[in-house]
Amino acid sequence: MQDSIFTDIPVQYERIANATKALAFNMASDLYTGSLLKTLVASKGTAKILELGTGSGLATSWIVAGMRKDAKLVTIDNNALLMDIARQNLADERVCFVCADGYEWLQTYKGDKFDLIFADAMPGKYDLFEEALALLRIGGFYIIDDMLPQLNWPDGHAAKAEKFIDVLENRKDITLTKLNWSTGIIIAVKTADKEF
Ligand SMILES: C[S@@+](CC[C@H](N)C(=O)[O-])C[C@H]1O[C@@H](n2cnc3c(N)ncnc32)[C@H](O)[C@@H]1O
User: Fold this and answer.
1) Has residue 196 got a pLDDT over 60?
2) pLDDT tens figures, 143-159
3) For the chain, which residues make up each domain, given as ranges?
4) Which candidate in 38, 48, 177, 185 could, as Cys together with 66 as Cys, close a disulfide (CB 3.0–4.6 Å)?
5) Comparing C-alpha atoms, which of 138, 137, 108 is closest to residue 123?
6) Residue 98 near ligand 1, beta carbon < 6 Å
7) Which sign, positive or negative, has the C-alpha torsion 18, 30, 88, 99?
8) SS3 state of residue 132
């Protein structure tokens, strides 16, 4: 099996990747993560999906590719330049692009809960994790990437990542699997509404 062969790269991917290079943005999720997101999204039927950290929309393109007709995606980023690339290439009535601060959004959102959260920004991952998890339905997926050391990590980030993994592993309201694959993925499923 060759896991590096992707036969279903979203049609918009190359155009988004080219526009992303022009902005020298180097934090995009890779093809492995994208492919996994598409598969998990496809498992959820009429899913409500939350992406924290749209970037230029590379992972978003995979999420959209996995969405069924009635699924909905809310995707958040505070960088308007990056989000414009995503918006231009992935315009779709099922997708709501929100250019906002993720910290503020997570603390003020009052809508429906989500079936899958891809948390790829500080808010919802290293910060305000509790708030993000509260927005996930029981049985919903919480996905993070970049959990193995990355070249663009600032000083001190490795310790932060280890601490966060420890927090996740000690929770009683999720069950998770750590994958030393791609950039280091954690797939968690919410099993209860509150920690007990
Ligand atoms: C790791 S990148 C996401 C990359 C994306 N998954 C992709 O495939 O292109 C993290 C993103 O979080 C965004 N971000 C950083 N701080 C934020 C904040 N406070 N609120 C919302 N977005 C934020 C950055 O602009 C960046 O696009």
Assistant:
1) no
2) 999 999 999 899 999 99
3) 29-190
4) 38
5) 108
6) no
7) negative
8) helix
Q: What CATH fold (topology level) applies to the domain 29-190?
A: Rossmann fold (3.40.50)
Q: Is 42 exposed, middle or buried (0-12, 13-18, 19+ CB in 10 A)?
A: middle
Residue whose CA is at the smallest distance from ligand 1 atom 15: 121
The pick from 16, 120, 150 for probing ligand 1's pocket by mutation, whose C-beta has the most ligand atoms within 8 angstroms, reads 120
Distance from the CA of 188 to the center of ligand 1, in angstroms?
Answer: 20
The pTM assigned to this predicted structure is: 0.97
Cα-to-centroid distance, 123 and ligand 1 (Å): 9
Ligand 1 neighbourhood includes 42 CB (under 6 angstroms): no
The alpha carbon of 60 and the centre of ligand 1 are apart by a number of angstroms equal to 12
CA distance 62 to 95: 13
Q: Residue type for 35, please?
A: S
Nearest CA residue ID for atom 13, ligand 1: 53
Could you report the per-residue pLDDT of 56-111, keeping only the tens digit for each?
Answer: 999 999 999 999 999 999 999 999 999 999 999 999 999 999 999 999 999 999 99
